[in-house]
Every structure is written in structure tokens, then in C-alpha cells.
Amino acid sequence: MPPILEARNIWVVYGDGTIANKGVSISIEKGEIHGLLGENGAGKTTLVKVLYGVVQPVSGEIYVEGSRVERLTPSKARSLGIFMVPQHSILVSTLTGYDNIKLSYPYEDLDDKLDNILSELNVLIELDKPVHELPRGMLKKIEVIRALISGAKLIILDEPTSVMSPIEVQELIRMLDSLANRGVSFIYISHRLDEVVEICDRITVLRDGSVVYTGEVGDVSEVYRKMFRSDLSYEKFRLVKEQFNIERVKIDGLLEMPKEGVHVILGVEGNGQDVLARRIVSKLGEYGFVGFVPGKIEEAIVPNMSLVDNLRFRVVDDDGLDYIKLTERIVERYEVITESIYKPISKLSGGNIQRFVVGRELELSDKYTVLEFPTRGLDMRSMKLIHRRVQEAVERGVSIIYFTEDIEEALEVGDLISIIYRGRLNGPYRVGDINIDKIKMLMSGIGW
């Protein structure tokens, strides 16, 4: 039986000369969950855009169930059973789940098809509420169901669990397993290597636009080595102290701010982190400069300005600061790939922009920094780099509030952890005393 989808020797060259895919080949079997991995800028996004018909390669061939497809487009892809569920939901927020599905499949047999799929999968999905009232994990299920109703044979999932609680992640994994057993195939893009190991049958690893590995998954450390050509270090960067100096900053109650260390605010995105982060910044601003990386990184830059000028506008009192040297330091220490520090920051990839902004705020701070999801969307190597730089900032006396939705990251960087759910805080807990099962329940809204 031929693969459900096969791409052979795909080359993609963008208008500015960037070679995004270099002779990439990949095949997806029927009923397979195939992980697509690589660090930021490795070519994953370009490849799936090619497979879905959004980007046209300069050369290469695509086959669906053994038949070659000429000039694939999104509409042609869907007609062949290839669907994509992007990282950020494209459902109409004011419509119910049912109405969102009906937009894609406005036919009389919708109800019968929907009943059959839901009964086969034995999953609970609320279709009668506006989707903006539903948990993030439920939205992803609705998007998968919508693709199935329309005849999906292969579904491309881009970072599907990035805004899910641990319980929602496990529910989605069970759903995907059930569908794979029924013959539906998936391309699964994720930076969460533990999920990849748990759910994927095979993986393809991209590095610098080329395939460096296709085959069995292995364990997390093996997957990491295939991605980065180095070993995965589980070094714990937080300060190991029996007691912390605590400042109590009154922000809708008492938020404990360690003078030496990191207070992690842990919770799935969309639970009031943005509002809380800005209140913290506003309060701490009474004591001087506060480094701040917002959850939406585009709010932290001026796109048409150079890297140097994107540093300059954050400085109120320069006190003889050498902007050029500091920009060069940030580029070097945070591995920002750029042809010139005078290049508009918008010309950089998303990961490079993110590392630059995090570096700018940490390097300018001498007392307080608030980091709202600073590593979200970054590959593991970049995450580890930022964790090291956070620790170095702590060692020179910076206190840090660190927002994340990743439990492992919270345990790695945090000295204190509080859980946020629908605007409420539970904690803080010392990292050494924390109960992981309780944390997972609190993040899912249970036990409050």
C-alpha cells in the first residue's frame, strides 16, 4: 500500500534568496502519527506549507496515495483528504462549535456524520456553546472533528498542545491514538519532546532545511541529540537555598517576590496572565526600570527599526550607555542570527526576534524583570540558553517573575511557584515541596 502522503526532494527558495528546504523527502503511512521536529528556523513550517499547498516548491514531487499531484493548493489538498490545524485557533469565536463545523460542511448529512464520529471516538465535546467560552483543549478537538467531517485522511497538527493543561493534553493524545487506530494519519509538530516520544510512531528531524533523520522515535535524550547534535542536560539552574529574602508586593493581594530568585506563575495561557503581568510591571515600576517581555512579542519591538534602535527606545536614562556594544553583546550571548545589527528587526525570524527581546530586557535590568512566556515556541536549545541567562541575571541580583505554561520549565527555573487559573493565584509553593499531581489538577481548574 502506498503512503498516504509522500514528498520527494523538495526545494524551497524564497524571494530574498533564503533556502528554506533543501531536498527534503518525507512519507506518511496510513494510520501513522509522524513527528516533524527541528529547532526554530529548521524548515518545518515551510515544509508543511508545501504539503498543504500554501507554498510552491521550486522543485520536487508530491504524491497522495501513490498518485503524483501537480501544483498542490489548499483547496486541492482538502479535496484529497489533507487538512491542517494551525497552532492558533481559526474558529469563529462568536459561533458555537456546531456552527463552526457547519461552515466547513454545510450538508444535510452533517448530524449523522457527527453522531457517528463522536460515538466511535467516545469523546465529550461541547458543540452548543460559543467557542470563546470553551477551554483551549476543546477547541483543538473541534478543529480535528471538523476536518474529519470533511473527509480528512491526513491532518497536520502544528503545536497542538501549546496552550493546553496537562489533563487536556492527555485527552487529545487519547483521541489521536483512537483515530490513528482507525486509519487517520497525522503530522505532529511539537517542541515538547516527551509528547513526541509518547505519541509518535516515527519522526523526521530537520536541521538547516535538510532532513537529518527519519525513523523510530527512541527516548527523549536520543531525539534531542538528533535535533541538536549534543546531549540533553537536565542541570537545575535555580538557587538552592533554605530561606529566601521575600519582598511582598501588594498586587490584588500579596504576591511574594524573592529578592534572589525566580517566582514562576504557572498556568495555561488565557487565564489572566497578561493582565497580571502588566499590573506587576506597573507596581514594580515605582522602584525604577523593570525589564518586561510581553506574551505577544510583537508588542515589544518597532518592526521597521534596527536592532540597535530597538534597544535604544527602551532606555530612559542612558548614563553613557554604548548602544552598539550592548546590542552586539545581546546578539552574541543570545545567539541572534542577523547579518547586521543595523538591519530592521522585522527581517529576523520569530525565534531570533524573541531571543533578542529577552536578551534586551535581561541585560538592561538590574533589579526586576517580568518575563511572560519567554520561551514559548522556541526549540529546546534556545530554551536552555534563556534558562542559563535567567540564572546569570539572578546571580547578579535581579528578581524575576517568570510566566510559563510548562510544568517542567517551571520546576527547572523556579524557586517559588504559584498557579494561575481564571485570574486567581494559588501559592506560592517552594519548588522542593511541590506536589506535581496537585499542580496538574490546579492548572486544569480542579481543587480550587
Mean pLDDT figure: 87
Task: List the domain count as a whole number.
Answer: 2
Q: What is the 3D shape?
A: globular
Largest sheet: 6 strands, mixed
Q: Assign the CATH class of the largest domain.
A: Alpha Beta
The proportion of residues forming helix, as a percent range, comes to 25-40%
Report the total helices. Answer: 15
Number of strands: 18
Layout of strands and helices, then pairs:
Layout: E1 5-13, E2 19-28, E3 33-37, H1 44-52, E4 59-64, E5 67-69, H2 74-79, E6 82-85, H3 97-104, H4 110-121, H5 136-149, E7 154-158, H6 166-181, E8 185-189, H7 193-199, E9 202-207, E10 210-216, H8 220-228, E11 246-250, E12 254-258, E13 261-266, H9 273-284, E14 290-293, H10 307-312, H11 323-333, H12 350-364, E15 368-372, H13 380-395, E16 399-404, H14 407-413, E17 416-421, E18 424-430, H15 436-443
Parallel strand pairs: 3-8, 3-9, 6-7, 7-8, 13-16, 13-17, 14-15, 15-16
Antiparallel strand pairs: 1-2, 1-4, 4-5, 9-10, 11-12, 17-18
Question: How would you sum up this structure, described in words?
Answer:
This protein has about 450 residues and is of the alpha/beta class. It folds into 2 domains: about 5-230, P-loop containing nucleotide triphosphate hydrolases (Rossmann fold, 3-Layer(aba) Sandwich); about 245-445, P-loop containing nucleotide triphosphate hydrolases (Rossmann fold, 3-Layer(aba) Sandwich), CATH 3.40.50. The protein has 15 helices and 18 strands. The strands form 4 sheets. A 6-stranded mixed sheet has the order 6-7-8-3-9-10, sandwiched between helices. A 6-stranded mixed sheet has the order 14-15-16-13-17-18, with helices on both faces. A hairpin with a 2-residue loop joins strand 9 and strand 10 (about 210-215). The N and C termini lie far apart (about 50 Å). The model is unreliable at about 235-245 (pLDDT under 50).
